[in-house]
Structures are given as C-alpha cells and as structure tokens.
Amino acid sequence: MPKSLISIHDFSKEEMLHILEMAAKFEQQPAQKLLDGKIIASIFFEPSTRTRLSFETAANRLGARVVGFSDVKNTSVSKGETLKDTITMVANYADLIVMRHPLEGSARYASEIASVPVINAGDGANQHPSQTLLDLYSIQKTQGRLDDIHITMIGDLKYGRTVHSLLQALSLFNARFKFIAPPELQMPDEYKSYLTDRQLAFEEHSDLTGNIADADILYMTRVQRERFQDPIEYEKVKDSYSLKKTMLAGARPNMKILHPLPRVNEIDPDVDDTHHAYYFEQARNGMFVRMAIFAHVLGCA
Ligand code: CP
Predict the structure, then answer these.
(1) To the nearest 5 percent, what fractions of the chain are helix, strand and coil?
(2) 254 lines ligand 1 (CB under 6 A)
(3) Domains of the chain from N-terminus onward
(4) 211 lines ligand 1 (CB under 6 A)
(5) Cα–Cα distance between 265 and 143 in angstroms, integer?
(6) Å from CA of 89 to ligand 1 middle
(7) Which pTM value belongs to this model?
(8) Closest-lying ligand 1 atom to the alpha carbon of residue 52
(9) Which of 119, 140, 190, 292 is 20 to 30 Å from 56 at the Cα level?
(10) Hey, whose CA ends up nearest to atom 6 of ligand 1?
(11) Quick check: 1 pLDDT over 70?
C-alpha cells in the first residue's frame, strides 16, 4: 500500500523531524523541480483557502501539475457518485491525492481504496496532519526547540481537528498543556486520556486572561459554525474568547500566537502588529512544509 498521511501517527517522530528539516531547506531554496512530470489531484469537498492553495502552490513550485476540484457541485458527486468510485477514478489520473472531506474517517477510507498516496487535508473534526507539521515547524522556528513547550489551546477544543492532531504530535516532545474552552467545547476525554496514559500534564480552565503569562505558545481556534447541528448552540458559544492587545502585557517575550485560520472574532486585529502575532507567517510556513510532505511521500527527497 502506498505511503499516505492520514493521521499524525502515520509518521514517526524521526519522519516528522525529517519533514521539518526538508521544509527549512525548501524555505531557503523554494525552486526545486523534484516533482517534474508528476500529477497531484487536489480534491476538496469542504471550503478551504490556506490548505488548498498552499498544497497547490507547493506542487507547482516542485514542478508538478495540479488537477482537481474545490466545489463538488461541479463534479459527478452531485449526481450521486460515491466516494469510493470518485477516489478510484481520481487515482487513475494522478500520482497523489490531497483530499479534504467533512466526514471523519473519510481520508483513511480513501487511502484504503486508492492505488496512490492520499494526504488528509482535514476530515471533519478528526485530523489535519499537514497543519500539525506546519504548526511544529512554526513552534520550532519561533522557540528554537520543540521539547518542553508550554502550550495553551483556546476555543473550540471539541471539534477542532488541528488541536487534536497537534496534541498528539507534541506529546512526543514532553509538552505541558492548558486547555481553555467553554464547557460545551472542552477537549474530548479520548485526547485527555491520551495525555494521561503518557504521564503528560494538562490543566483545564475557562478563563483566558489569567492563563497567558506562562505560555510559550497561545494556540487560538475558531468556534466552527459548520460543526454545529443547532444554530442556537453555536450562538451561545461563538464569542467565548476574544484576544486583545491589552491582554498581552504580562506575556513571556518569546510567546507567539498561532491560529490555523480563518479567524472570526477570537483575535482582535489590534493584536496583528504585536511581536506575539505569528499566524500569517505560520500560514506561509505551510507552503514549505507541504513541499516537504510531497517530496517525502513520493520518495523524491
Ligand atoms: N488552516 C486551514 O485549514 O485553513 P483553510 O480552512 O483555509 O484551509
């Protein structure tokens, strides 16, 4: 079976560190035609700006060509074609598939059908492993290390696939975790048990203001309207947190704010011009990390 990236567990710690090393090289020298002659299929069943465009840019920078869709309305999915048939067909045309899909487990299912590698670009509330690798790259770049980081995760910790993948990856590097969420959106028990089983410390709070000073990384997340069945439930929690410049007065000098983006109200624009804001650079880092993922999965580096 070809090497796919569906969950962060598909890569060993050594492979993750290798990806980060390669990403640093691509950042120094982005024009490397390692994928000349390859075709990448980029199939997005859910909206995306950063993930899709950075994967497609990464493929173009490496000399590959990109086919795909970003709106299923224009595909035969709208006529009732199954995911199984869609993946079988796309695997006939491309050397690798990048897929985002709203259903948890859909990416693993696709990887079991496809004759080519599949990269999970987000499957529902489950996993977003390429985001995790770019988050690790951003942490390493800004903190000079990955070990023993104090990370505070804020917002939608229940449905946030980025925090689920990142928690699992950082557990390999002895991180200390704080979780800040309203009661309705707390980190699911399975992820807390994951940390407990590995004897890693975590704290849970609902207040943001008193939990900024001891963080190396504040990892903000959006409350995702699209994950709620009931709009009234979304309205209750949508504005739970809003980080403002005045709240950063006691922050560690090295503290950086990460956010997978898009943001809505959870980071006030007045934070953008502080030296703590790193979310736009973080998104740029994604392009180099995704070049490294392509090169690694396709055995070109
Ligand atoms: N971080 C992220 O997944 O952003 P998009 O939804 O814009 O791809």
Answers:
(1) 45, 15, 40
(2) no
(3) 8-128+285-297 (3.40.50.1370), 129-283 (3.40.50.1370)
(4) no
(5) 26
(6) 26
(7) 0.95
(8) 8
(9) 140
(10) 48
(11) no
